[in-house]
């Protein structure tokens, strides 16, 4: 089997686009699990919600894509705050299974509500005028919107990593999950901080949904298949590892793209094969901390 260099490089770039979605979605999961200790199975539904809220705003109210790139994460983030305040706050001290079951139930409710309103057929909105067209890379024509997805995802991912790992706010967040009473003694409102953290993690999922909608059709079920892969990314990178989620998401997107070139039949399972191997060798994940 002979693969031309242009075909290989073009598949690498397309894999990087998919990896960008994996990175930003797994980052939201890692933030929520690492700081709140909750397995947020509703992440895929909230990803979908960000895309559909944007579609509704653009089609019903003629609001621009650029406005919704900020507004949709805020709207879905507020919805996440309500979820945390009304439901999740009661299960933090319980087994992880309770959080998993609760967020799975939320997923079914959210997806069911949007499925009743819009059915399961795909919706789509146009690529912003500023990002239409493509750039000649020599070996392929790279759509400008896909290049934007990669750049925007990387900026948001590494800005989030810097916020959590290198700033005082991030230090308070990490300390608040380990010893909330000590942090409260310094005048920090730990319950509010936890609520906003969940809202922020949810907003990351919605941001990914806004980015994804011009690339893949918007559907109430668009998050179902993707969230399974994203959970695998988080496990491989290490549950709760911010940098692990970013690097693993990007890397697995590229590996998945290469697999489509050399052995297409395995492209849908290669992530899970890697997950099984990593768990056998290093159960905490590539970047996770061994207990």
From TrEMBL:
<feature type="transmembrane region" description="Helical">
    <location>
        <begin position="228"/>
        <end position="255"/>
    </location>
</feature>
<dbReference type="GO" id="GO:0006865">
    <property type="term" value="P:amino acid transport"/>
</dbReference>
<keyword id="KW-1003">Cell membrane</keyword>
<keyword id="KW-0472">Membrane</keyword>
<keyword id="KW-0812">Transmembrane</keyword>
<feature type="transmembrane region" description="Helical">
    <location>
        <begin position="65"/>
        <end position="84"/>
    </location>
</feature>
<dbReference type="InterPro" id="IPR001851">
    <property type="entry name" value="ABC_transp_permease"/>
</dbReference>
<feature type="transmembrane region" description="Helical">
    <location>
        <begin position="96"/>
        <end position="114"/>
    </location>
</feature>
<feature type="transmembrane region" description="Helical">
    <location>
        <begin position="192"/>
        <end position="216"/>
    </location>
</feature>
<feature type="transmembrane region" description="Helical">
    <location>
        <begin position="145"/>
        <end position="164"/>
    </location>
</feature>
<keyword id="KW-0029">Amino-acid transport</keyword>
<keyword id="KW-0813">Transport</keyword>
<dbReference type="GO" id="GO:0005886">
    <property type="term" value="C:plasma membrane"/>
</dbReference>
<comment type="similarity">
    <text>Belongs to the binding-protein-dependent transport system permease family. LivHM subfamily.</text>
</comment>
<keyword id="KW-1133">Transmembrane helix</keyword>
<dbReference type="InterPro" id="IPR052157">
    <property type="entry name" value="BCAA_transport_permease"/>
</dbReference>
<dbReference type="GO" id="GO:0022857">
    <property type="term" value="F:transmembrane transporter activity"/>
</dbReference>
<feature type="transmembrane region" description="Helical">
    <location>
        <begin position="29"/>
        <end position="53"/>
    </location>
</feature>
<feature type="transmembrane region" description="Helical">
    <location>
        <begin position="261"/>
        <end position="281"/>
    </location>
</feature>
<protein>
    <submittedName>
        <fullName>Amino acid/amide ABC transporter membrane protein 1 (HAAT family)</fullName>
    </submittedName>
</protein>
<dbReference type="Pfam" id="PF02653">
    <property type="entry name" value="BPD_transp_2"/>
</dbReference>
């Amino acid at each position: 089997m002979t693969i031309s260099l242009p075909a290989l490089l073009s598949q690498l770039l397309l894999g990087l686009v998919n990896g960008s979605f994996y990175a930003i979605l797994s980052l939201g999961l890692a933030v929520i699990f690492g700081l709140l200790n909750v397995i947020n199975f509703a992440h895929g539904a909230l990803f979908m919600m960000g895309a559909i809220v944007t579609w509704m705003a653009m089609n019903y109210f003629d609001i621009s894509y650029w406005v919704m790139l900020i507004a949709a994460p805020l709207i879905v983030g507020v919805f996440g705050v309500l979820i945390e305040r009304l439901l999740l706050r009661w299960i933090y001290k319980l087994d992880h299974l309770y959080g998993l079951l609760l967020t799975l139930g939320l997923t079914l409710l959210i997806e069911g509500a949007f499925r009743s309103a819009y059915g399961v057929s795909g919706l789509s909105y146009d690529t912003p005028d500023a990002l239409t067209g493509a750039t000649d890379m020599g070996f392929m024509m790279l759509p400008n919107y896909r290049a934007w997805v990669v750049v925007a995802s990387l900026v948001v991912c590494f800005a989030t990593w810097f916020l959590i790992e290198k700033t005082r706010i991030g230090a308070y967040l990490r300390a608040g999950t380990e010893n909330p009473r000590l942090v409260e003694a310094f005048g920090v409102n730990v319950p509010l901080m936890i609520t906003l953290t969940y809202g922020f993690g949810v907003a990351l999922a919605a941001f990914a949904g806004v980015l994804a909608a011009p690339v893949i059709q918007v559907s109430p079920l668009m998050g179902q298949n993707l969230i399974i892969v994203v959970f695998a990314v988080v496990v491989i990178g290490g549950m709760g590892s911010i940098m692990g989620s970013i690097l693993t998401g990007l890397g697995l997107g590229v590996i998945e793209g290469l697999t489509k070139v050399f052995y297409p039949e395995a492209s849908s399972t290669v992530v899970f094969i890697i997950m099984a191997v990593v768990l056998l060798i290093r159960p905490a994940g590539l970047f996770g901390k061994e207990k």
